[in-house]
Here is the input.
Amino acid sequence: MMRCWSPADARVLRSCLGDNDQHLRPWIPFMKDEPRSLEQTAEWLRSIRANFDLRQNYRYAVFDAGEEKLLGENMLLGRVGPGAFEIGYWTDRHATGRGFASEATAAMIRVAFEIERAERLEIHCEPENVASAAIPARLGFTHDATLPKRATNSEGKICDLMVWSLFAADYPATPAAKTALRAFDCLGQPIAIES
Here is the structure.
C-alpha cells in the first residue's frame, strides 16, 4: 500500500530511518540531514506533503497491506525536465530482496504515464548500488549511460551516476504496464486508470 506522507508519520519514519542508517546512508542523498529530531521530521514531512499537493514532487510512503509496517518510500520527482519525472526509492533493510521496491516502482511507472501523462521517466543510481540498478533493468528501462563523477552522495563523496530511461512509447511493452494498480484522489475517490 502506498500513500502520500503525512506529518503524522513522523514517528514511524523516524524509527525506520534510525534503524536503517547504515543501510541507506551510502546511497540516499537526504541521509546527509539525518538524524533529525521528531519535530524536524514532522516539519520535513509537512514540506513533502506541500510539494505533493502542489504537484511538484510525489513522495509516497510504502507500507505493508495492513499499513502496519513501513517498508520504504517511492518517489516521482519533477527535476529532470518538462514532461519527465525521476523515480527514486529506498527500502527498509528488513524488506529488501522481497520485490517491494520493484512492485512500488512499477506502480509509480503506471501513475507517471497513465495519470500524469509523462513522456519520459528516469532512474539514477550509483553503479555500486547493484540492488537499485536491478530495478530499472527488470522493469524495461534502458541504461543510457554511466556518467563519471556526476553526483555527490550523502557522505560528500563525488560518485559516478547511472542514468536509466523509459519513454512513454516503450511503456506498454514493459512489465510495469501489467502491474495491478488502484489509485485514489485526495478525497478517496477512485482515479480511472487506462490500460
